[in-house]
Amino acid sequence: MTVDRGASGHQHGASAARGRLAVAFGITAAILIAEVIGAALTGSLALLVDAGHMLTDAAGVLVALIAAQLVLRPPSRHRTWGLVRLEVLAAGAQATVLLAVGLFALVNGAFRLADPPEVHADRLLVFGAVGLLGNIAALVILAGGRNHSLNLRAAFLEVVNDALGSVAVIVSAVVVAATGWMRADALAGMLISLLIIPRAVVILREAGSVLLESVPAELDLADIRRHLLSTPHVLEVHDLHVSRIDTGTPVLTAHVVVERGCFDDGHATEILQDLQDCVTEHFPLPVEHSTFQLEPPGHRDREAHVHS
To answer: Among 1, 45, 190, 232, which is most buried by a count of CB atoms within 10 Å?
Structure first.
């Protein structure tokens, strides 16, 4: 017996995410073009690294945009959840590329510290300011929906990194212009790398958690079991599983043993409603898609596989 109250909300959220991502992609692509031109004109590692970061961001936001469109497709007989998990795969792919870019830029920066090339500080400052303004605009667009989707959160964090990278570019330009110390540019590039790597790891870890069907961090399995067992006429709970299909769709399944008389007097329907209300209302992350198998005492012995 199943209840699903979140489908329409998910569709609305995906549609809103698509609009935000489309605008963010346009801004990110424009900044990318500007920074590629700027890196060629200034010879700056910081701007080159930030342009490389922007390239992965533009590709990542484009993938996120495609994923946001695909998750709107309805379920089919082959994919009963539709393509909602695609957002998690897209976020994981973005984070993987970001991690590779961060590590590459860190190593390249170390080489440039040893042999710093000449950097045109005045041009670098202009392109850094252009990048920062564009990133701020993209952040404003993505900020409102970043908590609704891992896909949007990955895109938002990438733009945050871009904005910090632009700040590093501006600072390095000021230092080079004021002191002539060319290594400031290499240090700025390495700083951008250090900003990229930890956030990429965080997104990878969360995407992996969803794909491995781990219990959401907001929920405690033992606490859920206690609540279910406190429902009147419930004797036992087993085969309790809680996971997420995507960022916004927690699911729960459980076998619930109830008093035998509940099947004779029609009380089982009320128990089912109580169980569904319990997991929807009592926890920090409401579980709106729950499936309960109500069983009489002794039925567990007939099941081939039982998990505690």
So the answer is: 45
| Identity of the residue numbered 305 | H
- Residue 176 · residue 125 · CB < 8 Å: no
Q: Where are the alpha helices (DSSP H) in 119-267?
A: 121-143, 150-179, 183-211, 221-229, 261-264
Tens digits of per-residue pLDDT, 3-12? 444 444 444 4
- Phi, psi (deg, nearest 5) at residue 72: -80, -10
The secondary structure of 66-101 as a DSSP string is HHHHHTTSPP-SS-TTTTTTHHHHHHHHHHHHHHHH
Amino acid identity for residue 167 in this structure: V
Backbone angles phi, psi at 117, to 5 degrees: -80, 170
Which amino acid does the sequence have at 223? D
Instruction: Name the one residue in this structure whose structure tokens are 């006429």.
Output: 233
249: DSSP letter:
-
Q: Which domains does the chain have, with CATH numbers?
A: 2-211 (1.20.1510.10), 221-302 (3.30.70.1350)
- Contact partners, residue 286, CB within 8 Å, separation at least 6: 250, 279, 280
Q: How far apart are CA 61 and CA 25, in angstroms?
A: 6
Q: 243: which strand partners?
A: 251
- Residue 38: CA count within 13 A, CB half-sphere: 31
- pTM value? 0.68
Q: Dump pLDDT digits (tens) for 232-272.
A: 999 999 999 999 987 778 999 999 999 988 888 888 889 99
CA gyration radius, the chain? 25
